Amino acid sequence: MGVRMVMESPVSQELRMQHDAEQRIDALRRVFDAVPDAVLVIDEHLQPQWRNAVFEETFGITNGAGIARLLLDNALPERTWHRLPLPDLSGRAPDFDVHCSRILIREGVAWRVAVFRQRQGVGTQELHP
After folding, report:
1. Element (H, E) at 116
2. CA–CA distance, 109 with 102 (Å, rounded to integer)
3. What are 84's strand-pairing partners?
4. What is the DSSP string of 19-88?
5. pLDDT in tens, 16-62
6. Burial class (CB within 10 angstroms; exposed 0-12, middle 13-18, buried 19+) of 52
7. Residue 56's CB: how many other CB atoms inside 10 A?
């Protein structure tokens, strides 16, 4: 008896690759939802592309564009923490420590990843991205 090899059709290969990609994206969503800080990803046109569960719980599902504009209006430097009052779902504007990083998506296109950590109390605290 010989070994019989079954070849995948191009359509089957494409469907398998699509399924694998969807599983990786779902896994990444779960990873970012486990991050204890609010995270917002903003494209080169300052449009929100992704937010984690903590961002939604803190700022809401539809407030990404408004938060992106506030970041632009305050011209926050990259890769350093800055204090910024931001409107949360309760209607208050507590102070958040905000950290922005640019990530290269492809040649000539960079997005921003913004991390928002609500300040706790009056004392100083050491911040790590």
Report:
1. strand 109-118
2. 10
3. 96
4. HHHHHHHHHHHHHHHTSSSEEEEE-TTS-EEEE-HHHHHHH-SS-HHHHHHHHHHTTPPTTSEEEEE---
5. 888 888 898 889 888 888 999 999 999 989 899 999 999 999 999 88
6. buried
7. 17
- 39's CB contacts (< 8 A; 6+ apart) are 32, 50, 51, 52, 54, 55, 113, 114, 115, 116
Two tokens, residue 7: 């070849």
What is the C-alpha to C-alpha distance for residues 26 and 107, in angstroms, rounded to an integer? 26
Tens digits of residue pLDDT in 86-127: 999 988 999 999 999 999 999 999 999 999 999 876 544 555
Instruction: Provide the b/e sequence for 65-97 (b: ≥16 CB within 10 Å).
Output: eebbebbeeeebeeeebeebebebeeeeeeebb
- List, edge to edge, every strand of the sheet that includes 109-118: 48-51, 38-42, 109-118, 95-106, 81-85
Which contiguous run of DSSP H or E holds residue 113? strand 109-118
Query: Is residue 98 a contact partner of residue 116, using CB atoms and an 8 Å limit?
Result: yes
